[in-house]
Design brief:
binds 1,3-dihydroxyacetonephosphate, two-stranded antiparallel sheet, 8-stranded mixed β-sheet, 16 helices, single chain, 2 domains, binds NADPH dihydro-nicotinamide-adenine-dinucleotide phosphate, N-(1-d-carboxylethyl)-l-norvaline Dehydrogenase, domain 2, alpha/beta, Rossmann fold
Length: 338
């Protein structure tokens, strides 16, 4: 199994499967690895991921591979699509098997648990400074992508050649438009913060509030994302682009979002545990609320919405009290840093 033009996707959840379907549908050999051997076997038989992406048939060029080493050795483009809490573990596992020239990209949206590091820092630590690295981010629900609905995303990398290569592998004139972005930091930060704000938007709707509240949260959430992103070295334009405002709007307004649905359940009075069980898939914003708030403190950035969400998720504060406390904050200029 060696083919220079193939792409290996690691992670057979909803998004890994959707990306693998999109790449294979373009006519590119694509290898999909999942850690659950039984699930991989079942997908092979059904030519469908009945657990995470039911109803989306696999193109012929999509191959299933249960052996991680073989999957990694097969391609010079490896796309990691596991949740942020499994990211470092997967990179450690694949490091010995990567081809010397292979680039590693990820579609994971989040920060490293506990440390709050950007995933590019985690990847550089494990794979070294010379390895080509890239991130994909933008408003892209797995199911709509897999169904071939028109979708746009952005890609940023630490090496320009890898951005080109990756965007060519993904871009499809019929349905999947890939924008290039040179802001590796901002792209990662946007994807992590939007999940936190989406929990807040869901929570507001769960409390019975309406479009005014949701839109205020999106707008002020964007201000929080931008402040933190700029403090970390990101570019302002990124936060009004695909990985910023684009993904905020998508995730805060549509119930396909797990983060939004998680917030809805909490707003309706469910416990964190029950809400998590109800979703049954990755809810990145839950853990990342903690990391985002810690990062904001470290960089001395004000993020009142994220801080209040932290209190609900980790300190048991009532969502309605959070709404009242946010409204009761001292009046401020819209353009100030708070
Ligand atoms: N779904 C979407 O629409 C989008 C998702 N994303 C991002 O993609 C990432 C993955 O999310 P998504 O696919 O949706 O999540 P899902 O919950 O649908 O699936 C998660 C997948 O990751 C696997 N997994 C979890 N931990 C590990 C690990 N340590 N090693 C290997 N595999 C692991 C799970 O395996 P198992 O089943 O065995 O637990 C499962 O296959 C997230 O960061 C998310 O934010 C980005 C854009 C859109
Ligand atoms: O990131 C996503 C769409 O761009 C998916 O959002 P959720 O993880 O909230 O489902």
């Amino acid at each position: 199994m060696t083919d220079l033009s193939s792409v290996t996707v690691l992670g057979a959840g909803s998004y890994g499967t959707a990306l693998a379907i999109c790449i294979a549908r373009k006519g590119q050999r694509t290898i999909l690895w999942g850690r659950d051997h039984d699930q991989v076997e079942e997908m092979q038989q059904a030519r469908e991921n009945t657990r995470y992406l039911p109803g989306c048939q696999f193109p012929d060029l999509l191959e299933l591979e249960p052996d991680l080493s073989k999957a990694v050795q097969a391609s010079d483009t490896v796309l990691v699509v596991v949740p942020s809490y499994g990211f470092a573990e997967v990179l450690q596992q694949i490091a010995p098997d990567l081809r010397p020239e292979a680039g590693v990209a990820w579609a994971t949206k989040g920060l490293e648990p506990e440390t709050g590091r950007l995933l590019s820092e985690v990847a550089t630590d494990i794979l070294g400074h010379d390895r080509a690295l890239a991130v994909l981010s933008g408003p892209t629900f797995a199911k709509e992508m897999a169904q071939g609905m028109p979708t746009a995303i952005a890609v940023a990398a630490n090496q320009p050649d890898f951005v080109d290569k990756l965007s060519k592998a993904l871009h499809c004139d019929r349905s999947f438009r890939v924008y290039l972005n040179d802001d590796f930091i901002g792209m990662q930060l946007g994807g992590a913060v939007k999940n936190v704000i989406a929990i807040g938007a869901g929570m507001a709707d769960g409390l019975g509030f309406g479009a005014n509240t949701r839109t205020a949260l999106i707008t002020r959430g964007l201000a929080e994302m931008t402040r933190l992103g700029l403090a970390l070295g990101g570019k302002a334009e990124t936060f009004t682009g695909m990985a910023g405002l684009g993904d905020l709007i998508l995730t805060c307004t549509d119930n396909q979002s797990r983060n939004r649905r998680f917030g809805l359940a909490i707003g309706q009075g469910k416990s964190v545990d029950d809400a998590m069980k109800e979703i049954g898939q990755a809810v990145e914003g839950y853990r990342n609320t903690r990391e985002v708030v810690a990062l904001a403190k470290r960089f001395n950035v004000e993020m009142p919405i994220s801080e209040q969400l932290y209190k609900v998720l980790y300190e048991g504060k009532a969502p309605m009290q959070v709404a009242q406390d946010l409204l009761a904050r001292a009046q401020t200029s819209e353009n100030s840093g708070a």
